[in-house]
Amino acid sequence: MSSVDTTQDAGWRGTVARASLGLSIFAVLWFVIAAVGARFGAWSWQFGLGTMTLNWGLKLIFLALGVSVIAMVLSLIKAPRKRAFILSLAALLVAGLSFGRVAAFGGQATRLPPIHDVQTDWSDPIEPSPKLLAERKADGAMNPIEDAPVVPESAEGRWPGTPGRLVSEVQEEAEFRPEEQDSPKVAPYPKLATYEAPVAQPDAFATIVELIKDRGWKIVTADAAEGRIEATETSFWFGFKDDVMIRVLPMEAGGSRIDIRSTSRVGLSDLGANAKRVRNLLDDIEVALH
């Protein structure tokens, strides 16, 4: 006969195990509630991310981890109960995976540079239109759009030595350098550069507008004469808004010169979201206009 009783309900130890699993599942749901609530305006993103997620959420995970460990120990001592052990193990795995996600988020935030504004050509920065600036102001955007932004003093605590440096320099240092690095995986950012397309400006402009529409972004400006496209992407989680500015100009030798800028409305670091967005859009433009 096995030393582990698998025949009947595990009694009060089963109740503890089920409670631990319920707590671990609730911890996962808590993060979803924090993000979705901020997305639909139930509370501010600062409260949803800072207080509910990184403060209360982390404490909830530690509580779930502790209760699941206690439930597992209880299931194994004196007439072990297999059912209670399995439930408590599941609780531990759920809580552990949640903690791993939060830890990975923190590690990524430290690894990536403290910037929220990237573009393909800082020597000739894309400037926002009055319409886009008005929308940002109405939305309470905290980050200004500048020709030569610098890393603010508030970055010193997590990224020592970066305050006061030009964002353009920090972006360049973080980008993949194929002449020096073996793989893009070793660099925080993908390489961003102006794309010269072998397609006339009107056709390139129209194609890019369609690519923007396919992404579901809100188009703010689409002025073919100026070669200006401005759009806003809103994230599902927390409802963060990032603005994308695209400049499509004709070249003297034919074809089009395409530059892209992407900037977040709030937050010191974008966790690489803007650079990834620009790179993905450039890749699609290159495929569409090759």
TrEMBL record:
UniProt entry keywords in alphabetical sequence: Membrane, Transmembrane, Transmembrane helix
Region spans: Disordered: 144-163
The keyword Cell cycle is annotated on this UniProt entry: no
Transmembrane residue ranges: 21-44, 56-77, 84-104
InterPro entries, per the entry: DUF1499
Record carries keyword Transmembrane helix: yes
Identification of the protein by name: DUF1499 domain-containing protein
Source organism (scientific name): Hyphomonas beringensis
Lineage, highest ranks first: Bacteria, Pseudomonadati, Pseudomonadota, Alphaproteobacteria, Hyphomonadales
